[in-house]
Design a protein that fits this description.
This protein is an alpha+beta fold. It is built from 4 helices and 2 strands, in the order H-E-E-H-H-H. It has helices at residues 2-20, 62-92, 100-121, 137-146; strands at residues 25-37, 41-54. It has a two-stranded antiparallel ribbon with strand order 1-2. A hairpin with a 3-residue loop joins strand 1 and strand 2 (41-54). Helix 1 crosses helix 2, helix 1 (2-20) crosses helix 3 and helix 2 (62-92) runs antiparallel to helix 3.
């Protein structure tokens, strides 16, 4: 799950870097006590959740923010496509009997990416721990898209 969460959060960061051209970001993966803390990355004991943080608020267009929010789900779609392609290569070369652990890992990672994509792209406010009270990427996109400019 760590790789799936990390890939999703890096999708947000990539879009932030592209659209805001800023280096002020940080990723936190996990809950509980801090296990590893670096300048741009924190890993906690239980790596079941992930968050990206931008160090300060920047003025940007709706499109810039929407693309930043969409970065995580787009990363999941990218990995779903890559994993589907790899599984087809394994099936075509009949490696599934020679490499059962690889087949299991690819299948698990594929399903985890699909689960995370659906769980983040659907507009909702999370009701349960560890995201309780937070908005999904889909809800953030919807709110930003329907926001009116306040002058």
């Amino acid at each position: 799950m760590f790789l799936v969460i990390f890939g999703h959060e890096m999708g947000h960061v990539l879009m932030y870097r592209i659209f805001f051209r800023n280096k002020d970001w940080h990723i936190t993966i996990g809950t509980g006590r801090t296990f590893i803390k670096l300048k741009r990355f924190t890993l906690r004991v239980f790596p079941i959740v992930g968050f990206y943080h931008v160090e300060s608020e920047y003025k940007g267009s709706k499109l810039q923010y929407i693309m930043m929010y969409l970065g995580g789900p787009l990363a999941n779609v990218f990995f779903i496509i890559v994993l589907s392609f790899l599984s087809q290569i394994i099936k075509a070369n009949e490696l599934k009997f020679e490499q059962p652990n690889l087949v299991w890992f690819l299948g698990f990672t594929f399903r985890a990416n699909v689960f995370q994509f659906v769980g983040t792209v659907v507009p909702m406010k999370y009701l349960f721990w560890p995201y309780k009270g937070l908005l999904s990427d889909g809800m953030r996109i919807l709110k930003k898209a329907t926001e009116t400019n306040k002058s």
